[in-house]
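Below is how a single chain appears once it has passed through the pipeline. First comes the sequence as given, then the structure the pipeline wrote out for it. We keep one example in the README because the format questions we get most often are answered faster by looking than by reading.
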Amino acid sequence: MTGRDPGTGAGRVHRGRVVPSWSEPLAIAASRLVGGPLGRHALVGRSRFWTPLRVVLLLAVTVLALGWLGKAPCLQQYEAEDGTLALDWRNNRQYVAMCYSDTVPLYGIERLDVGALPYRDPWVEEPGTPSERVRYMEYPVLTGFFQWTNARLADGWLWLAERLPLPSALPVVVYFDISAAWLALAWLVAVWAVCRLRPSRPWDAALVALSPLALVHVFTNFDALAVAAAAAGMLALARRRPVLAGLLIGVGGAAKFFPMLLLLPILLVGWRRRDVGTAVRTIVTAVATWVIVNAPIALAYTTGWWEFFRLNQTRPADPDSLYFVLSHFTGWPGFDGALQPGQPPAVLNAVSLALFALCCAGITVLALRAPRPPRLASLAFLVVAAFLLVNKVWSPQYSLWLVPLAVLALPRWRLLLAWMAIDALVWVPRMFYYLTPENKGLPPDYFLGMVVLRDAVVVLLCVLVILTVLRPSTDPLRVLGEDDPDWPARHGRPRPVLGAVRITAVQRRPGTAPSGRVERRARCEWWRTSAWET
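Resulting structure:
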């Protein structure tokens, strides 16, 4: 690794970890609060306990605790007129306090409180109205049984609380807390995987740990499960375990579909690196795992299992989508015009699918024509971001899918923290949009404007990632001599080194800058040091 002495600006070579307070502008600025960047003679790696991984996990635990506190106002109880305890969502507390979580209403809607078995036991939605419909569990198989298991654990806890001196609350509150514990553990797994994927840059995982999106949305829904499976699958692949990687990706796909999107980048990178065998083993295992997990439910309760797919076909464009934004600001009636209750937006579905297929085709061309084999994280970020941008639904917690991939693909701290902060702030006008102006909420323009801003920043990130693919010398990892730490090196062959970076510094002469200000300019000289596979 190449680094420089922050005190003298002299170039020197270091092997091991990248020093953030030497290379990241945000870390350099933040280090001034504690005395400045790491010193030239500092001892690094001597602490036996406070390793980077443990520090990053501690940061993640702190953010997760704050995230739980952010949802806590929606867990308050009050005594109803009949003397029983009830959940205090009076006066639209879930929107005013911005503490809404799907976990709470789904506990009753999906009849988890009475022990209904997912995919087997239906319920009637909006009975006695033209929109009356028989409904089943609307989530993929593993997420559905995750909810059911937590509901049964909540029942067991309350049973013990009646006999032992244990804290107790409403069943839905206990259910939320149990679910939150598992979701927090899943997010810690994602942080751990990102840290292990970047042994030379372990502090990049702090961006996942400290993400404002994690603060707001880890407990909004159940997506942290799939994020953990996808991140762990990428780590398994990097460590030459394609079968385990496929197993984890398939399990993640059975919890939420998005991990299956990683299979296209895996195939493309394997093709470019002439390592198709690794890619095929991963893909086949992932698909087989998904089938094995889903098959028993699909065969036993076909109608209930199909509910997830039916719902995604029939739901219209959500307010989070660009289609809804365009319709709102222009008066455009949409591709399908006015729809009857339960009528699927067939044209919108086809357009969304076609746009995503075009994006995948473009990413394929990019991967095949890039001057160097693209990094797996770069292509994975592009595929998932493209899916979200052209999809008719972008639920707020979907943004969690991008967090580990963005950190792995484009570890630029200020840029990523700015994007995550903007994306997290969409939650504020969203909640007051649902509150409606009649209840002192906001008109939709504020929320939809933030949606456009978020999408624009994601497009900017995609453009920057594409530039790193087309110009490897601008890749934050490859500029330091790394190839692709997310793809397994072949047995018996060292991982290829892309090149080297010579960093020099130029210091102004005394008197040419106020207050002794020093200007340091890094100049990178690029050259090949090993043969590349094309």
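Confidence is low (pLDDT under 50) at residues 1-15, 496-534.

See the next section for the split statistics.
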